[in-house]
Amino acid sequence: MKFELDPHHRNVPDEDLIQDVKEVAKRTGRDTATICEYEKLGKYHPATLQRRFRSWFTVLQKAGLQKSRSQLNILEKELFDNIKNTWIALGRQPKYSEMKKPRSRYSGGTYENRFGSWQRALEAFIAYINADSSEDGEEANKIGPPAAGAGQTTVTRRTKREISERLRFSVLLRDGFRCQSCGRSPLKSPGIELQVDHIVPWSKGGETTADNLQAKCEACNQGKGNAFDK
Q1: Same domain, 81 and 65
Q2: Which of 9, 29, 100, 150 is most solvent-facing, going by the fewest CB within 10 Å?
Q3: Nearest Cα to 214, choosing from 183, 184, 187, 174?
Q4: Domain CATH number, residue 180
Q5: At a CB cut-off of 8 Å and minimum separation 6, what does 128 contact?
Q6: Burial of residue 49, with CB atoms counted within 10 A of its CB: 0-12 exposed, 13-18 middle, 19 or more buried
Q7: 62-121 pLDDT, tens per residue?
Q8: Contact 56, 25 (CB under 8 A)
């Protein structure tokens, strides 16, 4: 799921956006509206309103509604990003009891309330990470046309150079959160920062696909430079 401002909604007047929030509150019979409720019942995406008014509490204030204290105000993407960051920091699947500050922004109870149990939250997270997404690089890019006399041919690329957050996490998970060169991991060596690197460099024709990506610690990745892995 992408949380981007829909270009068709950029020119919608503020009063129309606020009125739509009021309509959602009326439909639920409450004096407030959570982000989750608006995401299901609203005409626009909640991120559109949050970007326009800076926060959901401001949206509710302008609509004359009460502030909602429900944890359902948290977007699923934020909850999933928090699991991802905690998982990477630990170098393994986090436990319910480990979902607390300062390591985690949200408690295990937040996920339990949202998904019914911590296990269901993890299952939903894995489904989200593994979901096919156009952001993971199926958009063709062309290099060229070549400069005169350069001898470079125009190459059509299947993927983008940038590695999406979903694809990055999937590769780290597949590689067991261990550097594929030296074997170090955040679990056994606290402070180790893992990166995801192209095996065949992008500059040499490599694509941004899972089979051409691998986990590397910062030291090994910097030492590789633009060379092929051996």
Answers
A1: no
A2: 29
A3: 174
A4: 1.10.30
A5: 1, 76, 80, 166
A6: buried
A7: 999 887 655 456 788 889 999 999 998 888 899 999 998 888 988 888 888 778 889 988
A8: no
Distance CA 108, CA 94 (A): 10
Do 84 and 42 reside in the same domain of the chain?
no
Both structure tokens of 114: 């949202």
In Å, how far are 4, 6, 39, 41, 91 from 10, measured between CA atoms?
A: 11, 7, 17, 20, 40
Please give the Cα distance from 88 to 169 (Å, whole number): 8
Report d(CA 220, CA 85) in Å as an integer. Answer: 22
Those residues with Cβ within 8 angstroms of residue 3's Cβ, 6 or more apart along the chain or in another chain: 45, 47, 75, 77
Between CA 154 and CA 62 the distance in angstroms is: 53
Tokens of 120: 């269901």
Over residues 157-195, the pLDDT tens digits come to: 788 888 888 888 889 989 999 999 999 988 788 778 899
Check: pTM over 0.85? Answer yes or no.
no
Crossing angle for the helix pair 118-130 and 108-115, to the nearest 10 degrees:
80
Which CA distances in Å does 96 have to 87, 88, 166, 174?
Answer: 12, 15, 22, 22
